[in-house]
Design a protein that fits this description.
Number of domains: 1
Strand content: 25-35%
Structural class: alpha+beta
Largest sheet: 5 strands, antiparallel
Number of strands: 5
Shape: elongated
CATH superfamily: Molybdopterin cofactor biosynthesis C (MoaC) domain
């Protein structure tokens, strides 16, 4: 079966998907990403010595706030009444990076993948913003969906090593 892009009409023009006839189901999405940095930068963040404040707490809050505004940022996303968004920032000293994970949940007619991905991306941007005075070489990397469940397509787990 050939898959088709859902945000294009028969003439190839952008359109918002009509989800009016879809049933409401419980949906969840998990996304991850990383911010690579100099080891000294990570040490400053972990020690709470970044002048702008508690980097992890502010990044987690920024991610939650961003998930709630996803439809304002991405033109064809439906506004969702989110049940829950949780963002975790975990230092990984061995790899000199911060690993970020976002879990988004909704009871609705459309999925929450974009909300989870937006949460991770904005949390990563917030880490960069808060620490850029000491390390402009930081890299945001590997933002990706790791799991989604619910809706017509059911459960999708990212393959290990993918």
């Amino acid at each position: 079966m050939k898959k088709q892009l859902t945000h294009l009409d028969t003439d190839g023009q952008a359109k918002m998907v009509d989800v009016g006839q879809k049933p409401e189901t419980e949906r969840v999405a998990v996304a991850r990403g990383s911010v690579l940095m100099q080891p000294e930068t990570l040490q400053l963040i972990m020690a709470g010595q970044v002048k702008k404040g508690d980097v992890f707490t502010i990044a987690q809050l920024a991610g939650v706030m961003a998930a709630k505004r996803t439809s304002d940022l991405i033109p064809l996303c439906h506004p969702l009444l989110l049940n829950h968004v949780h963002v975790t920032c975990t230092p990984n000293p061995e790899a000199s990076r911060v690993d970020i994970e976002a879990v988004a949940r909704v009871s609705g007619k459309t999925g929450v993948e974009m909300e989870a991905l937006t949460a991770v991306t904005v949390a990563a941007l917030t880490i960069y913003d808060m620490a850029k005075a000491v390390d402009r070489s930081m890299e945001i990397s590997n933002v990706h969906l790791t799991h989604k469940a619910g809706g017509q397509s059911g459960t999708w787990p990212r393959a290990t090593g993918e």
